[in-house]
Every structure is written in structure tokens, then in C-alpha cells.
Amino acid sequence: MSTAKKDYKRITTKSLYDMKANGEKISMLTAYDFTMAKIVDSAGIDVILVGDSASNVMAGHETTLPITLDQMIYHASSVVRATERALVVVDLPFGSYQSDPKEALRSSIRIMKESGGHAVKVEGGSEIKESIKRILNAGIPVMGHLGLTPQSIYKFGTYTVRAKEEEEADKLIEDAKLLERLGCFALVLEKIPASLATKVAQSISIPVIGIGAGGGVDGQVLVIHDMLGMNNEFNPRFLRRYLDLYEQMTKAIGQYVTDVKSKDFPNTSEQY
User: Which of 4, 20, 111, 210 could anchor a disulfide with 217, C-beta 3.0 to 4.6 Å?
Assistant: First the structure.
């Protein structure tokens, strides 16, 4: 299997299939605004997820449940305007697709038309298959999400690792194969045993992106605020911090306050 990296000018759903076939890992990060998305896209990321995690990191909610469809469209529009290379996937928020396939289609059409996003992402397997079918039948690409599904956090009652027991693991594998059969172009697996995630990735042809699912999958995703160390209170095992922006930004802002108070800023060269 070739591991040569192809130079993609624009990432599409087909690009992700090709990456999996060629053994090239897929990189994915979240973004929620124009400035951050422009930086992420320029750095060469393959997929930008406009995640409902905006509910947490942008709005300060405890869960992802409160964010609305209008708010997701606002964030997604900002990201799309900044993006030239990456595939932009937008989360369908809680309550916009689970119970009514027609509502799922209406929500997805709004995201695609009003934000310019390239695909939507949904959480769940067999229980939402009719919604997924309705969205796909309209020609809208769908990314699945199994394992720890944050929109179901009150059902789980905890953010602990999922599918450690055989019954839940078997259902996850069945759901992954179902999502592939339905026509989903990719799948996110969150916080499940690495051996199970590897088994899923090897048993289906669509790309599998992991978060807390080990290295045997086809790519990785992290929340940008976590990866850059802007949130210093979140420390799961799967998180690798590439910067400590919390400390660096706090120090820089503190220095600015000192300079203003001491009348050091602005100096004569910083005024007209």
C-alpha cells in the first residue's frame, strides 16, 4: 500500500476515500470563526469540522445541546468564507434531525444553502437511519458519528469510554456497517477502545476518523481550542496539546495591562 502524500488543491469526499485507499492519514480539526478557520486551512488541514462543540468553547455551555441551527449556520458561514482547501463539515445540532426525517432534510438544506458547507455530520446509527436516508437522497453528503455521542450525554450520564462491553461493541460495528451501506462518506468514532476502532476501520471501506479511538483508524480529529491549549481545564488521555496558549495569552494580556497602566503603551513611535 502506497503512503505517498498527494497534493490536493481542494479536498472533497472522494479525496478522503483516496487517502484511505492510499494509506494516507486524514487530519481534521474544528473551527468556528473566520480568523481561526483561515489559519487552520492555510496550515494544510484536510477537514474542518464546524462542531456543535461551539456550544462549549464559544458559548460556555456545559453540553452541546443548547446550540441552535441558526447559530450553527452562523459559525459555518464564517468558516466557509475563510476556507480554500479543506472540506467543511457542519454538525447538525441536537433536535434538528433525530425524530423527523423531513425535519432532518430541512435542517440539512438550510445548512448547505445558507452556510455553503460541504457536508453535514449526525450522531447515531440505526435509530436515525431514516433521517440519514432522507438527507442522502437529496444529494447532501453525510458523515456519521458513533461511540461517545455528546448529544446523548444525558442518556449516557458520563463521558467515559464507550463500547467496552461486548453487546455495545457489537452494536457499534453493526451501526458502522449500516452507515456505510446507507451511503455516509465517512465516520467519526469517539472515545472507544483502540482495538475496536481498528476493527471498525478495517471492516468498512469509508474513512474512519478517531478522537480518543487510537491510531488504527484512518485519521484524527481534535477540538482546536483543546489542541492549542486555550482550555487548560480539559485533560483527557487522548488530547495532545501542541501549544499552551492559555499561559501565553494570559501573560501577553497581563503585559498589555501593565504597559497601559504605566503609560509605556503607546510610546512615541506608536502614535500619529
Answer: 210
